[in-house]
Design brief:
2 domains, alpha+beta, three-stranded mixed beta sheet, 224 residues, globular, NADH Oxidase
């Protein structure tokens, strides 16, 4: 039974330990269709790798407490100033799609073998791997992360309508690097915008929360 977008936003948590269960062909095709759509819309070269344990078999993965990861999505694109933000945005779209399909995920920036992953990827020209998404059937479903209060992440001079608050409630549930939540949303003139407050991987985080807001609110924001 697939989850709705609202259910996926609420139930999705980072998972680092996975069961030895292969992804069915039909599910892989559903993911690939979504990846193709993200690549076209985001001018990216995102790639799905299945049944490949080497990228998560070394000391880095051990340090990151990853177990049983044999599937991952590599977020790839040509080097550009906004590459990480776009990878965050479309990566979170894929994270929620995976959750809706009954899978678990985890954002991974450092604790995987980029060298081993590259052996199974096609990179050309000045393309770079921004990060990867561990993917599969979780041994557990993960735990909710602690969040800053809404007042620390959102500013508005007037009372925000329900759609804005729905979006911000989704943002509170969004994953960010080290759970830092270094971003600020602003509502003015019936428009929502978001900016990064700096920090490690903050550009990826910015893209993640931008998509999470749009998925939760049903409205677009001022972005890239």
């Amino acid at each position: 039974m697939t989850e709705s977008m609202t259910e996926a936003i609420a139930s999705r948590h980072s998972v680092r330990s996975y069961r030895e269960k292969q992804l069915p062909h039909q599910l892989i095709q559903s993911l690939q269709d979504e990846i193709d759509a993200c690549n076209a819309a985001g001018h990216l070269h995102i790639q799905l790798v299945t049944n490949e344990p080497q990228a998560f078999s070394g000391m880095l993965a051990h340090y990151g407490n990853f177990k049983g990861v044999t599937n991952y999505i590599a977020l790839i694109g040509a080097d550009a100033q906004d590459l990480q933000e776009r990878c965050g945005y479309y990566g979170e779209r894929l994270v929620l799609k995976a959750q809706m399909l009954g899978l678990n995920t985890c954002w991974v920036a450092m604790t995987f073998s980029k060298g081993n992953a590259k052996k199974h990827l096609q990179l050309s020209g000045n393309e770079k791997i921004a990060c990867v998404l561990a993917l599969g059937y979780g041994a557990v479903q993960g735990e909710p992360h602690r969040s800053k209060p809404l007042s620390a992440l959102f500013h508005s001079e007037t009372e925000a309508p329900d759609w804005v608050l729905n979006g911000m409630n989704a943002v509170l549930l969004a994953p960010t690097a080290m759970n830092q939540q270094k971003f600020l949303f602003d509502y003015s003139n019936q428009t929502v915008s978001c900016k990064s407050l700096g920090g490690p991987y903050s550009s990826i985080d910015l893209g993640i929360v931008e998509y999470q807001f749009e998925a939760g609110s049903g409205h677009q924001i001022v972005s890239f």
